[in-house]
Structures are given as C-alpha cells and as structure tokens.
Amino acid sequence: MEFITISFSLFILLSTLFLFKSSVAGRRKNLPLPPGTLGWPYIGETFQLYSQNPNVFFASKVKKYGSIFKTHVLGCRCVMISSPAAAKLVLVTKSHLFKPTFPASKERMLGKQAIFFHQGDYHSKLRRLVLRAFTPESIKNIIPDIESIAVDSLRSWENRLINTFQEMKTFTFNVALLSIFGKDEVLYREDLKRCYYILEKGYNSMPINLPGTLFHKSMKARRELAQILAKILSLRRETNKENHNDLLGSFMEEKEGLSDEQIADNIIGVIFAARDTTASVLTWILKYLAENPTVLQAVTDEQEGIMKGKDDKSLTWLDTKKMPITSRVIQETLRVASILSFTFREAVEDVEFEGYLIPKGWKVLPLFRNIHHSPENFTNPEKFDPSRFEVAPKPNTFMPFGNGTHACPGNELAKLEILVLLHHMTTKYRWSMVGPQNDIHYAPFALPQNGLPIRFYPKKMP
Ligand code: HEM
Ligand SMILES: *[C@@H]1O[C@H](CO)[C@@H](O)[C@H](O)[C@H]1NC(C)=O
Ligand SMILES: CC(=O)N[C@H]1CO[C@H](CO)[C@@H](O)[C@@H]1O
Q: Whose CA is nearest to atom 2 of ligand 3?
C-alpha cells in the first residue's frame, strides 16, 4: 500500500470552491435525497475530507452509502456518483441537465469564453472547431515535428538529474503550441512560455487581485498573453492567406465568425487542458515502468521492433497503431493514476435518478478515480497490470478522457505524443528514480512526490 499525503495545493485549490455562486433551490419533487450526511452547517464535512486522503474519504463513503451519496464540502452541497450508470446519465444521456461549473476565479483566468464553461450552441460550435483540428487525419501531418520535439527534449536530459514533471511540461507545452500554431510556433514560443508560466503560478493561488499577489501577476500575464495572440492573429491575416491545418486556422476561418477575444480565451484554454494533464500521465508512466522491469522490457522490445523496420525514417501514424503493449501501458497508467480524480457539474433543474432527487443547484461530481478503482470492474484494482486491457473495458467503467458532451477532444493527440516520446525513450535511454517516491501530490492533478526526480542516461549502444 502506498502511503499518501495531501499536499497543500489541493487545499488551496478546493478552498477556492468557496467562491462558487451557491444556489440552493427548494425541493419540488417528493423524492428522498441520496443517502449520506451533510455535516455541520457551512463547513459541512470539509474537515473529514482534509483529515484523510480525499480518495479514502470518497471510498469510505461509497462503502457506507453506495454509489450515489450526498455530502457538503467547502460551502457546496454535492451529490457524488461512482457508478457507470450514473456517470452515463450525467455526462452522456442527460448532459443538458448538468452544466459545467467552475469557480469564478478560474473562469477569469482562463477566459470566460473558453469551451469548458459553456453549453448549447456556442459550445457545440467550439467543439466542432477543436475536434477537426485534432482528428487523426489532421494530427498525422505533425508527427515528424512531434518527433523532433521529443528527440530534442530527450537529448537535453542526457546524463542529468531531472525533475520529470517539469521536463515533461516543457515537452507537452511545445507539442501543444505546435498543434495550435503549426510551424509558426517557434517564433512565439519563448514569449508565450514566459507569460504562461506566470499565469499558471497564480492559478492555484488565493484569488485576491491586489498589487503584489500571485493572482494579480497572473492576471497581468493573462493580458500580455492576449496581446501576443492579437499580434499573431493580425500577422496571419496580413501575410499568409492560405489555409492552415492547425487549431488557430480552424478558429480563424471567416465563416465561423469568432471574435479575437473568443479565439484568445480558447487558445489559452486548450494550452491549459493539454499541458499538465499529458505531462502528469507521462510522469506516472516513467514511474510505473521503472517499478515494473518486465513491463519495461516488453515495451522496449516492441519499440525496438518498430525501429528496426525503419532505418531512421520518421514514425508514421500506422507505426503508432502497431504498439499494442505500449498502448496498454498508457491505458493502465490512466486507470491507476486517474489524474483527473473527478469532474464537476451542476444540476440545472431537479433530476430524478434511481428513486433519488438530485436538487437543482447542487453540484454533481462523477468520481472517475473511484469508478476506475472499483474491484467489481477491475480485479485487484491497485495493481499496475497493463495486460488487463487485453480485454476491452465495459462502457463507462474506464473514462480517463471523460465521456459525452464534454469528453476530451485532445485524446488522440495526447496518446500520439506519449507514444512518440516513449518510442525514442525506451529504445535509446534508461532512467532510475532518485529519493522517496511513494507519496502522491495533487497540483491539482495527481502527481508522484516532488515531480519524480530521475537520473537519465543514454543506453550504451552495442
Ligand atoms: C492524457 C492527457 C489528457 C487527459 C487525461 C485529459 C482528460 C480530459 C477530461 C477527463 C476531460 C473532460 C472533463 C469533463 O467532462 O469535465 C477533458 C476535456 C478537455 N480536454 Fe483533455 N485530457 C488530456 C489531454 C488533452 C489535450 C492534449 C488537449 C488538447 C490538445 C485537451 C483538450 C481538452 C479540451 C479542450 C477539453 C474540454 C472539452 C469540452 O468542454 O467540450 N486535453 N480532458
Ligand atoms: C460513453 O457512453 C456511451 C453510452 O453509454 C458508451 O457506449 C461508451 O462506451 C462510453 N464511453 C466510454 C469511454 O466509456
Ligand atoms: C459493467 C460493470 O461491471 N459495472 C459495475 C462496476 O462497478 C460498480 C460498482 O462500483 C457496479 O455498480 C457496476 O455494476
């Protein structure tokens, strides 16, 4: 069993939930609320949540009350759900009754017009524009460029002690910029990176907008980012009129009629959605491979097999479809690490589910991690065992990319960039973990202790 502590950043993250506009509606239907306790007025069960690992808190509730229960944390009344049927209702079949909900400070920072915060027509339009930039057809073309970013990253780690998460963030940031701006990307990379890194520092800070606070600096960096993006937009409009296959090209198409502000909010939003998520999954993969030498050997053999057939030519989409063992390692990592433990929705009206009332205005949290760790769906759930994915998981038992209306439009790109990096990494490098690595931190995505420091070496070529 791993010993787990909760880092302070999770506390700060969840604390900002206090700023949710809370709306408690009267009960109209004559149905019971889901089982569970609401704890003390206002603070609810916040202490219970913080006095233990949040996943233990949720798991003990699931054990006591079943797969749907109510609780009250940090000023909001919530219904937590952890059954595949309930997840399907909230995310897929009745998704129009459950709107996305975020603390106001997060909306201000990412931009109010970003895709995550919306429902209905504006959301569907943005989704169509994002999806078409990230279909296999579109991202196939950038594989050689992803490869050169991967090769450069790996080279820069040679014979060094590195912080895996920090380095992976640079890799995933560069791939995100490539997918958004195409090859124009290098021109703006450093400016964008500098501003984005200031912005993210304020993301988990207290949202107090006074000179000197992290939040204030971060909002300033947000404005500077918008200015750089405005420059990129006008440059594109003036100089090259030809079609671009990247996300910016998709957003800029005249007939779509997006304003510059809408484009900026969504570009910043996609960088946010793409970078830390993929970087933390990569960090977990390195950890699990280091801990499971037979799995690492199987992945290495598979990748060497691909490399042998290619004599230094770059990878193709088809090559990436011939990596079943490596793909199962990615799936199993997504399951065990469940970096997005849960997501948030809010009931827009009273909803009935399995004889219970989910009242209008209450938050509804599908608990992905509990679903992914349910022994009914995954035998011996704490064990890292990629071979379990030799059989396809049942619907709505494995949702690392969510499901339904807001499911991740970047999932193909995420898997592609992970495969490309692992191809070069396992065939040419080896690594060893340094220091203790049993804790999990939430920043806010689940992450190995200290971002997983490792020593990274080139393999001695025979
Ligand atoms: C392994 C890495 C990733 C994981 C685990 C992941 C996971 C998720 C999940 C679970 C959601 C749905 C959240 C919800 O329903 O509340 C989501 C949404 C989203 N993701 Fe990802 N994601 C990853 C990488 C990416 C990448 C690389 C991109 C962009 C290129 C991206 C862009 C988005 C966007 C734009 C949304 C919002 C979609 C909407 O609201 O309609 N993600 N992601
Ligand atoms: C999403 O929901 C649909 C409908 O229930 C289901 O067929 C599909 O398998 C689900 N996707 C995942 C990833 O579970
Ligand atoms: C398809 C399937 O086996 N679903 C089960 C997964 O686990 C939950 C409990 O956590 C059960 O309610 C489902 O029936």
A: 377
Q: How many domains does the chain have?
A: 2
The most distant pair of C-alpha atoms in the chain lies apart, rounded to whole Å, by 74
Which residue has its alpha carbon closest to ligand 3 atom 4? Answer: 377
CATH number (domain holding residue 53): 3.30.43.20
Residue-number span of the structural domain to which 120 is assigned: 113-336+403-462
Is 21 domain-assigned?
no
Residues 248 and 328 in one domain: yes
Please tell me if the CB atom of residue 343 comes closer than 6 angstroms to any atom of ligand 1.
yes
338 phi and psi angles, rounded to 5 deg: 30, 65
- From the number of C-beta atoms within 10 Å of its C-beta (0-12, 13-18, 19+), residue 412 rates as middle
Closest ligand by atom to 396 CA? 2
299, 361: one domain: no
On whether 195 is known to bind a ligand per the annotation, the reply is no
CA distance 283 to 428: 18
Q: Tell me the per-residue pLDDT of 366-408, one tens digit each, with 9 for 90 and over.
A: 999 999 999 999 999 999 999 999 999 999 999 999 999 999 9
Task: Note the pLDDT of residue 203.
Answer: 76
